[in-house]
Write a structure and sequence with these properties.
The chain has about 140 residues and is mainly α. It has a domain of about 70 residues. Helix 1 packs antiparallel against helix 2 and helix 5 crosses helix 8. It is globular, with a radius of gyration of 17 Å.
Length: about 140
């Protein structure tokens, strides 16, 4: 899923008042903050999402798919964009990669993103095949 598709889904969730507000909020948490469906599914009215008891993980996944938000693809796309904003040293420490491997990541991710999400479709590039784990 490209970044342009993510932005199209965000616009859809923000503006389509026919969708249940809790589904819209869950989709936006997934798309904008890359929150896992499992974490979103545990939110309740105290957290502002689902009334009463938390919703089941698989139920939420089905609800998101039904409104056009593929949970796994959307989260991965959001994580790539968020990761492109972090310094290479932070990514290398979080993932256990050598910093020199992570230095090429932001340029590749940014190259795959449209300059403005509304005007370009932008394509995704696969992660670098040369990424090697850094031994601690």
């Amino acid at each position: 899923m490209g970044w342009a598709a993510c932005w199209a889904l965000v616009r859809h969730l923000v503006h389509d008042e026919q969708l249940h507000v809790a589904d819209r909020a869950a989709g936006l948490l997934l798309l904008l903050f890359a929150q896992p469906v499992g974490r979103i599914s545990r939110l309740t009215t105290e957290h502002i999402i689902y009334p009463g008891q938390p919703i089941g993980l698989h139920t939420l996944g089905r609800r998101l798919k039904a409104i056009g938000v593929p949970p796994q693809l959307a989260r991965h796309a959001s994580l790539m964009v968020i990761a492109s904003e972090l310094p290479a040293v932070v990514i290398s420490r979080l993932l256990g990669f050598h910093q020199s491997t992570c230095d090429i990541r932001p340029a590749r991710v940014r190259a795959s993103l449209p300059s403005t999400p509304q005007t370009s479709s932008g394509g995704e590039q696969s992660p670098s095949p040369g990424m090697r784990r850094h031994r601690r």
